[in-house]
Amino acid sequence: MTFKPTELEKPSSTDEAREGTAHSLVSSEETRRQMETLSTLALNRDGGFQEVRGGALGVRLAETDEERDAAQALRYRVFFEEMGAHPDERALRTKRDVDEFDDVADHLLVIDHNISSGAEGVVGTYRLLRSDAAKKVGRFYTASEYDISALTEFPGRLLEVGRSCVAQEYRGRAAMPLLWQGIASYIFLHRIDVLFGCGSLPGTDPDVLADQLTYLHHNHLAPPALRIRALEERYVEMLRKDPHTLEPRACLSKMPPLIKGYLRLGGYVGDGAVVDEQFNTTDVAVLVKSELLADKYYRHYERRLRDALDS
Fold first, then answer.
1. CA angle, 235 as apex, 233 and 237 as ends, to 5°?
2. Which InterPro entries does the entry mention (predicted)?
3. 211 is in which domain, residue-wise?
Protein backbone atom coordinates (compact mmCIF):
# COMPACT_ATOMS: atom_id res chain seq x y z
CA MET A 1 0.00 0.00 0.00
CA THR A 2 1.22 3.48 -0.81
CA PHE A 3 0.15 6.39 1.34
CA LYS A 4 0.65 9.96 0.20
CA PRO A 5 0.08 12.81 2.65
CA THR A 6 -2.15 15.46 1.16
CA GLU A 7 -2.96 17.95 3.88
CA LEU A 8 -1.19 19.18 6.99
CA GLU A 9 -3.34 19.09 10.09
CA LYS A 10 -2.16 22.01 12.19
CA PRO A 11 -2.17 22.00 15.98
CA SER A 12 -4.65 24.30 17.65
CA SER A 13 -3.68 27.77 18.81
CA THR A 14 -3.98 26.47 22.37
CA ASP A 15 -1.39 23.81 21.59
CA GLU A 16 0.90 26.41 20.05
CA ALA A 17 0.63 28.64 23.09
CA ARG A 18 1.34 25.73 25.40
CA GLU A 19 4.39 24.63 23.45
CA GLY A 20 5.84 28.13 23.16
CA THR A 21 8.63 29.40 21.02
CA ALA A 22 11.29 27.97 23.32
CA HIS A 23 10.21 24.44 22.43
CA SER A 24 10.40 24.92 18.67
CA LEU A 25 13.41 22.90 17.50
CA VAL A 26 13.66 24.25 13.97
CA SER A 27 12.61 27.45 12.24
CA SER A 28 9.26 27.87 10.51
CA GLU A 29 11.06 27.97 7.18
CA GLU A 30 12.68 24.60 7.92
CA THR A 31 9.28 23.26 8.99
CA ARG A 32 7.77 24.24 5.67
CA ARG A 33 10.59 22.49 3.85
CA GLN A 34 10.01 19.34 5.90
CA MET A 35 6.32 19.38 5.10
CA GLU A 36 7.06 19.90 1.40
CA THR A 37 9.42 16.94 1.54
CA LEU A 38 6.86 14.73 3.27
CA SER A 39 4.17 15.73 0.79
CA THR A 40 6.29 14.38 -2.08
CA LEU A 41 7.07 11.03 -0.48
CA ALA A 42 5.33 7.80 -1.32
CA LEU A 43 5.92 5.80 1.85
CA ASN A 44 5.47 2.07 1.49
CA ARG A 45 6.02 -1.15 3.33
CA ASP A 46 9.04 -2.35 1.33
CA GLY A 47 11.28 0.39 2.71
CA GLY A 48 11.45 2.73 -0.26
CA PHE A 49 10.41 6.25 -1.04
CA GLN A 50 9.96 8.24 -4.19
CA GLU A 51 12.77 10.42 -5.44
CA VAL A 52 12.71 13.95 -4.02
CA ARG A 53 13.53 16.53 -6.68
CA GLY A 54 15.08 19.97 -6.48
CA GLY A 55 15.30 21.27 -10.02
CA ALA A 56 17.55 19.00 -12.08
CA LEU A 57 18.83 17.28 -8.93
CA GLY A 58 17.08 14.43 -7.19
CA VAL A 59 17.75 12.29 -4.12
CA ARG A 60 16.85 8.61 -3.78
CA LEU A 61 18.32 5.27 -2.77
CA ALA A 62 20.61 3.38 -5.14
CA GLU A 63 18.65 0.73 -7.00
CA THR A 64 21.29 -1.06 -9.09
CA ASP A 65 24.84 -2.37 -8.77
CA GLU A 66 25.89 0.25 -11.32
CA GLU A 67 24.58 3.06 -9.12
CA ARG A 68 26.33 1.66 -6.04
CA ASP A 69 29.53 1.41 -8.08
CA ALA A 70 29.12 5.04 -9.14
CA ALA A 71 28.84 6.06 -5.48
CA GLN A 72 32.05 4.17 -4.65
CA ALA A 73 33.83 5.80 -7.60
CA LEU A 74 32.72 9.25 -6.41
CA ARG A 75 33.96 8.47 -2.91
CA TYR A 76 37.36 7.51 -4.32
CA ARG A 77 37.66 10.74 -6.30
CA VAL A 78 36.73 12.91 -3.32
CA PHE A 79 38.51 11.06 -0.49
CA PHE A 80 41.66 9.84 -2.22
CA GLU A 81 42.28 12.06 -5.23
CA GLU A 82 41.03 15.33 -3.77
CA MET A 83 41.43 15.10 0.02
CA GLY A 84 44.68 13.14 0.12
CA ALA A 85 43.58 9.86 1.72
CA HIS A 86 46.01 6.97 1.27
CA PRO A 87 44.57 4.14 -0.87
CA ASP A 88 45.38 0.51 -0.29
CA GLU A 89 46.32 -1.74 -3.21
CA ARG A 90 42.72 -2.63 -4.03
CA ALA A 91 41.48 0.96 -3.98
CA LEU A 92 44.41 2.12 -6.11
CA ARG A 93 43.75 -0.61 -8.66
CA THR A 94 39.96 -0.24 -8.88
CA LYS A 95 39.69 3.53 -8.27
CA ARG A 96 36.86 2.71 -5.87
CA ASP A 97 36.37 3.28 -2.13
CA VAL A 98 34.89 -0.03 -0.98
CA ASP A 99 34.63 -1.80 2.37
CA GLU A 100 32.75 -4.68 3.97
CA PHE A 101 29.76 -2.51 4.94
CA ASP A 102 28.84 -1.46 1.40
CA ASP A 103 27.09 -4.72 0.50
CA VAL A 104 24.66 -4.54 3.43
CA ALA A 105 24.07 -0.77 3.58
CA ASP A 106 21.67 1.46 1.70
CA HIS A 107 23.30 4.13 -0.45
CA LEU A 108 21.59 7.50 -0.71
CA LEU A 109 22.34 9.27 -3.99
CA VAL A 110 22.06 12.76 -5.40
CA ILE A 111 21.54 12.50 -9.15
CA ASP A 112 21.90 15.26 -11.73
CA HIS A 113 19.25 14.46 -14.31
CA ASN A 114 20.83 16.88 -16.76
CA ILE A 115 23.64 14.33 -17.02
CA SER A 116 21.75 11.07 -16.57
CA SER A 117 18.91 9.61 -14.53
CA GLY A 118 21.10 6.64 -13.63
CA ALA A 119 24.64 5.84 -12.54
CA GLU A 120 26.36 8.45 -14.72
CA GLY A 121 24.39 11.21 -12.98
CA VAL A 122 25.53 10.42 -9.40
CA VAL A 123 27.04 13.60 -7.88
CA GLY A 124 26.54 12.98 -4.15
CA THR A 125 26.19 10.05 -1.78
CA TYR A 126 25.68 9.07 1.86
CA ARG A 127 25.90 5.53 3.25
CA LEU A 128 23.09 4.45 5.59
CA LEU A 129 23.53 1.42 7.86
CA ARG A 130 20.69 0.25 10.09
CA SER A 131 21.08 -2.08 13.07
CA ASP A 132 19.74 -5.15 11.26
CA ALA A 133 22.20 -4.60 8.40
CA ALA A 134 25.13 -4.06 10.79
CA LYS A 135 24.37 -7.43 12.40
CA LYS A 136 25.19 -9.12 9.08
CA VAL A 137 28.75 -7.78 9.36
CA GLY A 138 28.88 -8.13 13.13
CA ARG A 139 29.45 -4.48 13.98
CA PHE A 140 29.02 -0.87 12.97
CA TYR A 141 31.85 0.95 11.20
CA THR A 142 32.08 3.46 14.07
CA ALA A 143 33.04 0.60 16.42
CA SER A 144 36.51 0.60 14.81
CA GLU A 145 37.12 4.00 16.45
CA TYR A 146 34.69 4.22 19.39
CA ASP A 147 33.22 2.11 22.15
CA ILE A 148 29.57 2.39 21.10
CA SER A 149 28.08 0.21 23.83
CA ALA A 150 26.13 3.23 25.13
CA LEU A 151 24.30 3.20 21.79
CA THR A 152 23.94 -0.53 21.23
CA GLU A 153 22.41 -0.80 24.72
CA PHE A 154 20.06 2.10 23.96
CA PRO A 155 16.43 0.89 23.63
CA GLY A 156 15.76 2.29 20.18
CA ARG A 157 16.44 1.96 16.47
CA LEU A 158 19.89 3.09 15.31
CA LEU A 159 21.12 4.42 11.99
CA GLU A 160 24.81 4.87 11.24
CA VAL A 161 25.62 7.38 8.51
CA GLY A 162 28.96 7.79 6.81
CA ARG A 163 31.04 8.05 3.64
CA SER A 164 29.32 11.32 2.79
CA CYS A 165 30.64 13.25 -0.18
CA VAL A 166 29.52 15.59 -2.95
CA ALA A 167 31.29 16.23 -6.25
CA GLN A 168 33.30 19.44 -6.04
CA GLU A 169 31.29 21.36 -8.62
CA TYR A 170 28.04 20.70 -6.70
CA ARG A 171 29.13 21.94 -3.29
CA GLY A 172 27.42 25.07 -2.07
CA ARG A 173 24.41 24.21 -4.22
CA ALA A 174 21.38 22.04 -3.49
CA ALA A 175 23.20 18.69 -3.25
CA MET A 176 23.87 18.63 0.50
CA PRO A 177 20.42 19.93 1.48
CA LEU A 178 18.92 17.21 -0.72
CA LEU A 179 20.99 14.56 1.05
CA TRP A 180 19.67 15.85 4.39
CA GLN A 181 16.12 15.66 3.06
CA GLY A 182 16.76 12.09 1.98
CA ILE A 183 18.16 11.17 5.40
CA ALA A 184 15.18 12.77 7.15
CA SER A 185 12.81 10.78 4.93
CA TYR A 186 14.73 7.55 5.58
CA ILE A 187 14.72 8.17 9.34
CA PHE A 188 11.01 8.83 9.27
CA LEU A 189 10.23 5.77 7.17
CA HIS A 190 12.31 3.37 9.28
CA ARG A 191 11.35 4.96 12.61
CA ILE A 192 14.95 5.64 13.60
CA ASP A 193 15.55 6.93 17.13
CA VAL A 194 19.25 7.86 17.00
CA LEU A 195 21.43 8.84 14.05
CA PHE A 196 25.20 8.57 14.53
CA GLY A 197 28.51 8.34 12.74
CA CYS A 198 31.97 9.87 12.48
CA GLY A 199 32.40 13.47 11.39
CA SER A 200 35.80 14.36 9.99
CA LEU A 201 38.00 17.41 10.45
CA PRO A 202 40.72 17.76 7.78
CA GLY A 203 44.24 16.97 8.95
CA THR A 204 45.85 14.68 11.50
CA ASP A 205 47.39 17.18 13.95
CA PRO A 206 44.97 17.68 16.88
CA ASP A 207 46.86 20.77 18.04
CA VAL A 208 46.14 22.51 14.73
CA LEU A 209 42.47 21.64 15.31
CA ALA A 210 42.50 22.66 18.98
CA ASP A 211 39.89 25.41 18.61
CA GLN A 212 37.36 23.20 16.85
CA LEU A 213 37.89 20.18 19.10
CA THR A 214 37.71 22.23 22.30
CA TYR A 215 34.59 24.04 21.10
CA LEU A 216 32.82 20.78 20.27
CA HIS A 217 33.71 19.14 23.59
CA HIS A 218 32.78 22.16 25.68
CA ASN A 219 29.50 23.02 23.94
CA HIS A 220 28.14 19.82 22.42
CA LEU A 221 29.27 16.84 24.53
CA ALA A 222 26.61 14.12 24.52
CA PRO A 223 24.66 13.35 27.70
CA PRO A 224 25.98 10.32 29.62
CA ALA A 225 23.25 7.98 28.33
CA LEU A 226 24.43 8.51 24.74
CA ARG A 227 28.09 9.40 25.29
CA ILE A 228 30.22 7.03 23.29
CA ARG A 229 33.97 7.20 23.91
CA ALA A 230 36.97 6.79 21.65
CA LEU A 231 38.76 3.48 22.08
CA GLU A 232 41.52 3.82 24.66
CA GLU A 233 44.31 3.03 22.19
CA ARG A 234 42.99 5.68 19.78
CA TYR A 235 41.72 8.30 22.25
CA VAL A 236 42.73 11.92 21.58
CA GLU A 237 41.80 14.55 24.16
CA MET A 238 39.41 17.13 22.68
CA LEU A 239 39.62 19.71 25.47
CA ARG A 240 42.96 21.11 24.32
CA LYS A 241 42.75 24.70 25.61
CA ASP A 242 40.74 26.93 27.92
CA PRO A 243 37.27 26.98 26.29
CA HIS A 244 36.56 30.44 27.71
CA THR A 245 39.24 31.91 25.45
CA LEU A 246 37.44 30.74 22.30
CA GLU A 247 35.44 32.92 19.94
CA PRO A 248 32.44 30.73 19.00
CA ARG A 249 31.84 32.34 15.61
CA ALA A 250 35.46 31.85 14.63
CA CYS A 251 35.34 28.20 15.72
CA LEU A 252 32.19 27.53 13.72
CA SER A 253 33.62 29.23 10.65
CA LYS A 254 36.45 26.67 10.68
CA MET A 255 34.11 23.72 11.16
CA PRO A 256 33.39 21.44 8.15
CA PRO A 257 29.88 22.00 6.72
CA LEU A 258 28.80 18.46 7.56
CA ILE A 259 29.61 18.82 11.26
CA LYS A 260 27.92 22.23 11.33
CA GLY A 261 24.87 20.54 9.85
CA TYR A 262 24.75 18.07 12.72
CA LEU A 263 25.09 20.88 15.25
CA ARG A 264 22.22 22.82 13.66
CA LEU A 265 20.06 19.74 14.21
CA GLY A 266 20.89 19.76 17.91
CA GLY A 267 23.56 17.09 17.55
CA TYR A 268 26.11 15.96 20.12
CA VAL A 269 29.68 14.70 19.99
CA GLY A 270 31.21 11.76 21.80
CA ASP A 271 34.12 11.80 24.23
CA GLY A 272 37.49 11.94 22.50
CA ALA A 273 38.66 12.33 18.93
CA VAL A 274 40.41 9.75 16.73
CA VAL A 275 43.16 10.38 14.19
CA ASP A 276 42.57 8.49 10.93
CA GLU A 277 45.91 8.43 9.16
CA GLN A 278 44.58 6.62 6.08
CA PHE A 279 41.91 9.23 5.38
CA ASN A 280 44.06 12.17 6.52
CA THR A 281 41.42 13.30 9.04
CA THR A 282 40.71 13.70 12.73
CA ASP A 283 37.33 12.16 13.51
CA VAL A 284 34.73 13.01 16.11
CA ALA A 285 31.68 10.89 16.90
CA VAL A 286 28.42 12.71 16.14
CA LEU A 287 24.95 11.77 17.38
CA VAL A 288 21.50 13.20 16.71
CA LYS A 289 18.26 12.10 18.33
CA SER A 290 15.77 11.82 15.50
CA GLU A 291 13.18 13.91 17.35
CA LEU A 292 15.52 16.86 16.86
CA LEU A 293 15.17 16.60 13.09
CA ALA A 294 11.78 18.21 13.19
CA ASP A 295 9.58 20.40 15.32
CA LYS A 296 6.09 19.91 16.77
CA TYR A 297 4.38 20.15 13.36
CA TYR A 298 6.46 17.32 11.95
CA ARG A 299 5.87 15.11 15.00
CA HIS A 300 2.16 15.87 14.89
CA TYR A 301 1.99 14.85 11.23
CA GLU A 302 4.29 11.88 11.77
CA ARG A 303 1.72 10.20 14.02
CA ARG A 304 -0.89 10.35 11.26
CA LEU A 305 1.45 8.80 8.70
CA ARG A 306 2.63 6.05 11.02
CA ASP A 307 -0.96 5.17 11.89
CA ALA A 308 -1.69 4.88 8.17
CA LEU A 309 1.30 2.61 7.60
CA ASP A 310 0.23 0.39 10.51
CA SER A 311 -3.35 0.09 9.28
1. 150
2. Acyl_CoA_acyltransferase, Ornithine_N-alpha-AT
3. 140-156+193-293
